[in-house]
TrEMBL record:
Alphabetized GO MF terms: transmembrane transporter activity
Primary site of residence: membrane
Transmembrane segments: 21-41, 53-75, 82-102, 108-131, 143-163, 169-191, 203-222, 242-263, 275-293, 299-318, 330-351, 357-378
Keyword entries, A-Z: Membrane, Transmembrane, Transmembrane helix
Protein name in the entry: MFS transporter
Organism placement in taxonomy: Bacteria, Pseudomonadati, Pseudomonadota, Gammaproteobacteria, Pseudomonadales
Location(s), subcellular: Membrane
Protein's organism: Pseudomonas frederiksbergensis
Length: 383
């Protein structure tokens, strides 16, 4: 291979990695832009807490239902058209979510938003698996780190715009403009192909894919528990003022973001099996610290350990999904992601039910057991 061909190949690989990172950044921006709109939607439409919970369940449900279709479409038509169409759909529906006052229209918009996010999530993860495999290097943690960065930037930007008096529609249009600019930059290097074709549209996970999905369920569930219950625990059990109870999730999210941005080097040095084994133990220890020691500072330290431990487990699991041969990737990747989303949806609900029957501390202790299980099964992912 001559120098010109080598340079062209290296340039193409750089473009593919950059486009993948931008896709993850876009997903984080759009998902987090929705979060500051939730209380405004609740007030504008006049929803109570129970109705809002059902509405948000529609968002996750729409994502899960759409993912198998995303895998099918990506396998047949490539990652580029699915990522572009899903992103444009999200940009179209976000302004509607900021203005709609008709409840049936809101329900349809939320389900459509969830379905579009599920399509984007699935397609960008399929691209990430292909790009990482072609490179021969650990890249997944960095990709997922950009999603976390997008989440921080999107939530921060939307909150800032709304706090200085911007109308919700104008604020969302500003976010849409940024996202479309990023998509314009990424689009040329998005992959025009997907995973290999084959397999049914829907398939029950089996073998190694089922195990990977179970582990993904547990880690996503832990993220959901941190999002929904960390502040509640700090207020009810550690006496923290509700106005700053969000520090719990902030410490978790910050540690996870740092862990993912540095994770590719860690995975390259330690290997995926050790990252899962040590990460699971770190996260379990963090949860134990948050429960065992009085005082909210100890809980914040514990939540940071949970974030650091969980940060690189899911990226390693996605690498393993791309490496396995038990099921076609066009089916396996959506299945694993769907199980992860189910963890986010069901985990916090289960914690609430167990807490109602016993106590929140007992319920959260169950998460420790699950995280230890993740660590103990780490060797099983080796192919």
């Amino acid at each position: 291979m001559n120098a010109g061909a080598e340079f062209a190949g290296a340039r193409a690989q750089y473009g593919e990695r950059l486009s993948t990172r931008i896709a993850f950044l876009i997903a984080g921006l759009l998902m987090s832009a929705w979060a500051p709109l939730v209380p405004l939607v609740k007030q504008r439409v006049g929803l109570d807490d129970g109705s809002l919970g059902l509405l948000l369940l529609g968002l996750g449900g729409g994502s899960i239902v759409a993912m198998p279709f995303a895998g099918y479409l990506t396998a047949h038509y490539g990652c580029r058209p699915v990522i572009i169409c899903a992103t444009i759909a999200l940009c179209a529906v976000l302004p509607i979510l900021s203005t709609v006052i008709w409840l049936p229209g809101l329900v349809i918009a939320v389900i459509f938003f969830g379905a579009s996010m599920g399509m984007l999530d699935c397609a960008m993860n399929i691209q990430s698996v292909i790009v990482e495999k072609n490179s021969g290097q650990a890249l997944q943690s960095g990709f997922h780190g950009l999603y976390s960065v997008g989440g921080i930037l999107g939530a921060g930007a939307m909150t800032a715009l709304l706090s200085v008096g911007f109308d919700p529609l104008i604020a969302t249009l500003c976010m849409v403009a940024v996202v479309l600019g990023a998509l314009y930059k990424a689009a040329p290097a998005l992959l025009v192909y997907g995973t290999e074709r084959g397999g049914p549209l829907f398939a029950i996970p089996r073998g190694i894919v089922l195990l990977l999905g179970m582990l993904c369920f547990i880690i996503f569930m832990t993220e959901g528990v941190m999002l929904d219950w960390s502040a509640v625990f700090l207020v009810s059990h550690r006496g923290l003022d509700p106005s700053i109870a969000g520090l719990g999730y902030a410490s978790f999210a910050a540690a996870m973001t740092v862990g993912r941005l540095t994770g590719d080097a860690i995975v390259s040095r330690l290997g995926g099996v050790r990252v899962i084994a040590l990460g699971g133990l770190c996260a379990a220890a963090g949860m134990a610290v948050s429960l065992a020691f009085d005082g909210w500072p100890a809980s914040l330290v514990g939540y940071a350990l949970v974030g650091a431990g969980c940060s690189n487990i899911v990226p390693v699991l996605f690498t393993a999904v791309g490496r396995q041969q038990r099921m076609p990737q066009a089916v396996a990747i959506p299945a694993v992601i769907s199980m992860g989303y189910a963890g986010i949806l069901l985990g916090p609900v289960v914690i609430g039910a167990v807490a109602h029957l016993s106590s929140l501390s007992v319920a959260l202790s169950g998460v420790i057991v699950l995280l230890v299980f993740v660590s103990a099964t780490a060797r099983s992912i080796r192919q």
